[in-house]
Design brief:
Strand content: 15-25%
Order of helices and strands: EHHHEHEHEHEEEHH
Oligomer: single chain
Radius of gyration: 15 Å
Helix content: 25-40%
Shape: globular
Structural class: alpha/beta
Largest sheet: 7 strands, mixed
Number of helices: 8
Strand order of the largest sheet: 4-3-2-1-5-6-7
């Protein structure tokens, strides 16, 4: 599994309330959620995000409430992967459950800049910053988690296994 896109960078403690504000939680429509993703901290996000882009953040990404709407909004916006120094544990699990790829890498989090071109090899955990000609290491997912992400999340994986 691989990903390629440009970096969209955020800082530390990006909480689920700014990833998708509570006023939009009445909908389950993924496109509607994506249309409001990050709007309380970055009004330009939905206009500039392109399919495959990589969200990069600092420590404690996804802190706050346990809403699954947050990783759904990010994934539905076209983001292929979120790289952070660390994730709130419930966000980490919700991301895997819905098939959003996430990687923890302190080095990548600190060195990747806004707009940098990024290649990710999920099999090895190698993150390549094409712009800066640097590589960073993240812990690769075990095969069963890569399979879940590739199939679109936990429920899609279960349905596929039942066939």
């Amino acid at each position: 599994m691989k990903a390629h896109g440009n970096a969209i960078k955020y800082g530390n403690n990006v909480d689920t309330d700014v990833i998708i504000p509570a006023r939009y939680l009445a909908t389950q429509d993924h496109k509607e959620l994506a249309s409001h993703c990050m709007e309380d901290i970055d009004k330009s996000f939905v206009q500039r995000v392109k399919p495959g882009d990589v969200m990069v953040a600092g420590a404690n990404f996804g802190c706050g409430s346990s809403r699954e709407h947050a990783p759904i909004a990010i994934k539905a916006s076209g983001v292929s992967c979120v790289i952070a120094k660390s994730f709130a544990r419930i966000f980490y699990r919700n991301a895997i459950n819905i098939g959003l790829a996430i990687l923890e890498s302190e080095e990548a989090s600190g060195k990747i800049g806004e707009g940098d071109e990024i290649d990710i090899d999920f099999d090895t955990g190698v993150i390549t910053n094409v712009t800066k000609k640097e590589t960073y290491q993240a812990q690769p997912f075990p095969d069963f988690i890569k399979d879940m992400i590739a199939k679109g999340g936990l429920m899609a994986s279960i349905k596929g296994a039942a066939k």
